[in-house]
Amino acid sequence: MPHSGVDGGRFPRFTKVIAVADVVESVRLMEEDEAEFIRRWKLFVGFVLKRLPLDTGRMHRSLGDGLMIEFTDPQGCIRAALAMQGWFMEGNRGLPPEQQVHLRIGAHIGDFVADEYDIYGTDVNLAARIATLAGPGEIVISGALRERVRGELNAQLEDLGACHLKHVKLPVRAYRVGFTGPAPVMPAVGPTRATMRASVAVLPFETSDAPGGSGSLGQAAADEAVAALSRSDGLQVTSRLSTVALRQVRPSLDEIRRHLGSRYVLSGHAREIGGQLAVFAELTDTHSGHIVWADSFKGRLPDLLTGGTTFLATLAPSVNAAVMANEVDRAEGLPLPALEGYALLLTSIAVMHRLGRADLDRARLMLEHLAERDRRHPAAHAWLAHWHVLGVLQGWLGAEDALQPATAHIQSALQCDPQAPIVLCMAGHVALHLARDLRGAGEYFVQALGSRPDDPLAHLLQGELFAWRGQGQRARAACDAALRLMPPLALRYWYDAGAALACWADGALPQAVAAAEQSLRANRRFVPAYCTLAAAQFEIGDIQEARETLDRLQDAQPRFSVAGYLQRTPAQGLVASRLAKALQGAAAGA
């Protein structure tokens, strides 16, 4: 109920510099050594309180791991911020990287309203948002504050350009201020990578060896399962050294969860029947106790160690699909802060690729939440860049509107890990479809494959690039390699659409039709698959079928137009002319 007696306009207004400072990864530091963190923080606050009067500053708020300070003099704010960073730099000397404490500071000059309890206003919120641009040990100031700073800064100043901030409508010009020399870079803490992967423990498979047997068949089956699953980007497989020790004790799910920290456990039974291999495997959620996937396989026993069994060929994609589906189901009933990092990532990818408008909005919200929660992991930013590309491919976003935010996400991802295959893949994806820089895209894909030669996404995107260049044979080879590497089932429609495009570019029109139809059976919303199908049907001579394909696309995407699609494809030269002739002919029905 509103309080009619409170008049916000009667409070005094001020124009001052607002600085917001907080400790990077304070929660982790507190958990690892609470007493030491509190000791250092209190010493730091004492230093700041003594320093501020020299720089026209006044402490407004201390939050236990952050400060809000107001300054009368812009130059004094810069001096104080540098002194604060210097205090922590000195204190970090001699400490291992994981124990070092780093501060990030954002500052802005503006108007605010004050009472005896707090300060309020858009500019106060903006100062806090600017602080999110700062990395460990960095200071970032607004362009408005930069204009007020006079004289020598005695520090490096880097123009960050127009920066997009969360919940701020217009981009804000920002500058990074720092000491001469490189800014501190926090090392990757071991668990950070694992938090973006669902953990799976593979137990030694039970076996029907003769009495006194060694159980070698079950161990071999489990070893091959570990090898297959470890190639997945979405799964973190527990070391076999940890699980072999559990062979004799037959642990409960609760014991597996507590001792191994695994969300999922893969177990099974392997036996030999007349020279044939029979394997049963099941995947269980250790928290709920529910079996989320199970299957049985049969094949020749010698194939177990050569990768020739159906068991090995389908295990990884089946387990990946089951984990993703289970995480999507779990995410339905939980608020975002309650979800683990891997649950947010897997769910956002799966939901995004349903290609519904509501699904895309939900996926973006999840990825933005994940990016804010874990600032050092590149995956959220990489997939946010892909989100913008999808919007363009589907015709919901213009390439001009999507390019800047997608590029910003790629830059953030590259800062986190410039060698990560997913980052390089999505950087090339943005270059290809939004910037139409085919050469730059190709360089990114080559780097991605150099980093990980068996990455299916890198092969797919390189295949698409070859197709748009008109290099049909190379396109088909790359897309065939992508499909052989077992892409996630939730993304299979995308890979089939890529294979269709490659076949069309190579003139293999019946194969293009088959692959495009397979893509659309999996996802009837994907615009590129419809367009490749219509183009291939038209060139075969099935004019009526091509027209009906575009009609189906119009029903699925009412905003679709052939002209708009042709404008946003990266096709060049003869490929562009050929595609335009086919789609325009299909649209005309002649």
Tell me about this structure.
- This protein has helices spanning 26-32, 34-51, 74-92, 122-131, 143-148, 190-194, 216-229, 240-244, 253-260, 310-332, 341-352, 357-373, 379-393, 399-416, 421-433, 438-451, 456-469, 472-484, 492-505, 509-522, 527-540, 543-556, 562-568, 573-588; strands at 13-23, 57-62, 66-71, 103-114, 119-120, 139-142, 156-163, 172-178, 198-202, 206-207, 235-237, 264-273, 276-285, 291-300.
- Helix content is 53%, strand content 16%.
- The radius of gyration is 28 Å and the shape is globular.
- It has three domains: 10-178, 2-Layer Sandwich (Alpha-Beta Plaits); 194-314, TolB, N-terminal domain (Rossmann fold, 3-Layer(aba) Sandwich); 395-588, Alpha Horseshoe (Serine Threonine Protein Phosphatase 5, Tetratricopeptide repeat), CATH 1.25.40.10.
- The chain contains 24 helices and 14 strands.
- A hairpin with a 3-residue loop joins strand 2 and strand 3.
- The strands form two sheets. Strands 1, 2, 3, 4, 5, 6, 7 and 8 form an eight-stranded mixed beta sheet that branches. Strands 9, 10, 11, 12, 13 and 14 form a six-stranded mixed beta sheet that branches.
- Helix 14 runs antiparallel to helix 15, helix 19 (492-505) packs antiparallel against helix 20 and helix 21 packs antiparallel against helix 22.
